[in-house]
Design brief:
This protein has helices at 3-8, 37-48, 73-81; strands at 13-20, 27-33, 54-61. By secondary structure, it is α+β, with helices and mostly antiparallel strands. A hairpin with a 6-residue loop joins β1 and β2.
Length: 100
């Protein structure tokens, strides 16, 4: 590939998720541009775990993520509001039960 062709081809955007030592869930920490997954992972390590903040890194192509729009949150989440059994207040917790 020529230099001119590479200058006009956009570099893919990757979303970066890091799992910190103190927890089990990966958390979105930012985005970066890289030509492939291997370089995205290396760049993510260098950018987002410089102080050894994580034990695991995920890089996901931004184009592979489908997300709801914050502007449509009412219409998107309203169907769940009528299901009271999904709320913890619906259940009676017996005395003596801990860590539920």
């Amino acid at each position: 590939m020529s230099e001119q062709a590479s200058a006009t081809t956009p570099t893919p955007l990757w979303e970066v998720f890091v799992r910190p030592r103190r927890g089990l869930a990966h958390t979105h920490v930012g985005s970066l541009h890289a030509p492939d997954a291997v370089l995205a992972l290396r760049h993510a390590r260098d950018l987002y775990t410089r102080r050894q903040e994580g034990v695991s890194i995920w890089v996901v192509p931004a184009e592979a993520i489908t997300a709801s729009s914050p502007d449509e949150k009412d219409a998107f989440f309203d169907p769940a509001a009528d299901k009271v059994y999904r709320h913890p207040t619906f259940y009676q917790v017996p005395d003596g039960v801990r860590h539920l």
